[in-house]
């Protein structure tokens, strides 16, 4: 996914009158990594890096994602539910599963194999994926970032 983290970093550094050293301290991201990010040399933006930067700039996921993913349309996909017969419709009221991996993947536009990697393997979570997953499960922007990257 194409991102504009360099544009975001440079804009925020100017707005906040912040030095790279101060950003390094506040974000816990090395100056060399910040330099690469600010020059557009990093192709994949991890969710952790994105969150560290927005917290360092005292920003929020919703506003930051509008800048970083300016061209991306954060619209959910429709879920293709299988048509049920009368008995299937009756049984729907007894089902309790919501937000299953396959439903979240469909809504967020992720391949099921990618969702499986994120849930069960060591798939590196990208920022846009976490934003779409938040939308898919209906939580406020930034909720999963805060829960997942909460400082202990």
Automatic annotation (TrEMBL):
Highest taxon listed in the record's lineage: Bacteria
InterPro entries tied to this protein: Lambda_DNA-bd_dom_sf (IPR010982)
GO molecular function: DNA binding
Protein name: Transcriptional regulator
